[in-house]
């Protein structure tokens, strides 16, 4: 029996006897990130960055100057995972700010969730020039979509490998961990309490997405199914869906066709007639 099967078996047994205790333990583990250090290919870009600290302690990296583009990495991710995209944006004349999400990198905190990520984007935007675009990967993409419903203003948004519906991801995680049904229900409730927003509301089908966007997803993503991107696209009339055949969950960030599609979106926004910013 491998270790994951042992964990599932343990959770299945304990979850029947003490569902609330097990759900509380899993909730803490689920919301406590462990960030890995940058890889060698990220280091040159990291050396070129300016480290900035925002008003309430949030840490970020900045490159270039020009119209502002704000980036948010995914769960247990890093700003420099966007390396190829950042280099292309700076070369095209944009100023890029990439956040260390709360409880990640040098930003404060021990726990985080999609709502905390979204509020971090709002905090950053309040200290930056008007945003030309927001780009988010995985949970960063989900948080960017949510942030627009909480007041974030941007001319365009790019969602990469993001889930459409948070409740689906919670249920998938709890089933993967082997929680019995009663423990699953407690787990979702505890996550909801911690996030401070009913998880049923964290769903792109409920959002008003009235600005141009790009949805990127790899068909072979092992963590977030491609169907999640299709659901976001269905709920977002002014969006383009870009399917990458082979990019996994992380490699898609460096795909040349993704970089080109992002630049095309920004170019179209730059030359579009003036419009009221999303808020």
Give an overview of the whole structure:
By secondary structure, the protein is of the alpha/beta class. It has a domain at 43-165 and 202-268: Alpha/Beta hydrolase fold, catalytic domain (Rossmann fold, 3-Layer(aba) Sandwich), CATH 3.40.50. The chain is 42% helix and 15% strand. It has helices at 3-17, 19-30, 43-48, 83-91, 114-125, 139-149, 166-176, 181-195, 226-235, 256-270; strands spanning 50-53, 59-63, 68-72, 95-99, 131-137, 157-160, 213-218, 239-244. The model has no long low-confidence stretch (mean pLDDT 93).
Task: Walk me through the topology.
Layout: H1 3-17, H2 19-30, H3 43-48, E1 50-53, E2 59-63, E3 68-72, H4 83-91, E4 95-99, H5 114-125, E5 131-137, H6 139-149, E6 157-160, H7 166-176, H8 181-195, E7 213-218, H9 226-235, E8 239-244, H10 256-270
Parallel strand pairs: 3-4, 3-5, 5-6, 6-7, 7-8
Antiparallel strand pairs: 1-2, 2-4
Helix pairs in contact: 1-2, 2-8, 4-10, 5-6, 7-8
Keywords, please?
279 residues; Rossmann fold; 8 strands; globular; 8-stranded mixed sheet; alpha/beta
Can you give me a brief rundown of this structure?
With 279 residues, the chain is of the alpha/beta class.
The coarse overall form would be globular
> Which residue ranges are poorly predicted, with pLDDT under 50 across at least 5 consecutive positions?
none
Residues in β-strands, percent: 15-25%
What gap, in angstroms, lies between the N and C termini?
51 Å
Largest sheet: 8 strands, mixed
CATH class designation of the domain at 43-165 and 202-268:
Alpha Beta
Radius of gyration: 19 Å
Can you list the strand order of the major beta sheet?
Answer: 1-2-4-3-5-6-7-8
CATH superfamily of the domain at 43-165 and 202-268: Alpha/Beta hydrolase fold, catalytic domain
Q: Enumerate how many helices there are, as a single number.
A: 10
